[in-house]
Amino acid sequence: MLLNGKNKIMNFWETKTLSEMSTEEWESICDGCAKCCLNKLEDEDTGELFFTSVVCDLIDLDSCRCTRYSERTILVPECIDLKQHDFKEYNWLPSTCSYRLLVDGKQLPSWHPLVSGTQETVEDAGVSIKSYAMKESEIDDLEDHIIEWLE
Fold first, then answer.
1. CA-to-CA distance for 87 and 92, rounded, in angstroms?
2. Residue 105 domain-assigned?
3. In percent, how much of the chain has pLDDT > 90?
4. How do residues 123-133 score in pLDDT, each as one tens digit?
5. 96 within 8 A of 33, measured Cβ to Cβ
């Protein structure tokens, strides 16, 4: 933590860009909602992206964490490693995504674990996929599971 000119404590996410963060800092920015892990469908004509309520079979639905995180992009080639992309491309992420919020110049919400001090606030705020997500192996057709979030 740093102090600004007005003696306000500044946290690392308020003083560093995503590219300046250490690996540990970067990983802590993830709020653990797992929305980015939801399968997406893209309209070939318009490019519009649709989120589904379906996640890859590597996600532990109790913790909303990948069970094979370090190997995920090898095991699931479609898995996106956010750190490998230009931050300006994050507009496809859900509006609640902490990485997107920071890129857009916004603050982390009060329910974020770095702000609240606990992971439970993500679920309490209704941001986690835990209550509705299902695994790929449990469904037949992704199009039957398209979801819409209220912004």
1. 11
2. yes
3. 64
4. 999 999 999 99
5. yes
